[in-house]
Design a protein that fits this description.
The chain has helices at 4-15, 20-38, 57-63, 82-95, 100-109, 111-116, 132-141, and strands spanning 18-19, 47-50, 53-56, 68-69. It is mainly alpha-helical and 143 residues long. It has one domain. α2 (20-38) packs across α7. The longest helix has 19 residues, at 20-38. It starts with a helix and ends with a helix.
Length: 143
């Protein structure tokens, strides 16, 4: 299994510089769709339901305080299996040209993030996990 840093490095190899928010959302969608298509986790890091959408805290620790990110030297893009690469490429083909704000708004409309934030006010800080079960159920239903 790849690490979240390997996935981030692969995303940068494919797309180049991007905002921190966009990286977070692309990592989230790569994970979610890999659960649906391959019925396995893409990486082992926890995805949390923050106010601005899904966030992988492990990625956040690396880009904290940065708006734009030029590269991701911590991971190894070659660590992804062909199946993992295929998932990330498919996600990038569909979501990669979307703006960070569009991606964030989309996650706010989807039940995995909404369910994990139940009981929190809009904009309120939260860090509950978005479960694999909620992602698999939601995204498999929209295929």
């Amino acid at each position: 299994m790849a690490t979240v840093h390997d996935v981030a490095a692969y995303i940068f190899d494919q797309r180049g510089p991007m905002s921190a928010m966009k990286l977070e959302k692309l990592a989230y969608y790569s994970y979610a769709w890999h659960l649906v298509w391959d019925e396995e986790r893409l990486f082992d890091a926890r995805i949390e339901a923050w106010a601005n959408g899904p966030v992988v805290r492990e990625l956040y620790r690396e880009h904290r305080g940065k708006f734009m990110i030029d590269s991701w030297p911590r991971g190894n893009p070659e660590a992804l299996t062909p199946s993992e690469q295929e998932t990330v490429r498919a996600v990038l083909d569909y979501y990669g040209d979307k703006s960070p704000a569009w991606l964030s708004e989309l996650t706010h409309k989807e039940s995995p993030w909404r369910d994990a934030r139940r009981g929190l006010a809009p904009g309120e800080r939260g860090e509950l996990p978005i479960t694999d079960e909620s992602m698999a159920e939601y995204y498999s239903a929209i295929i």
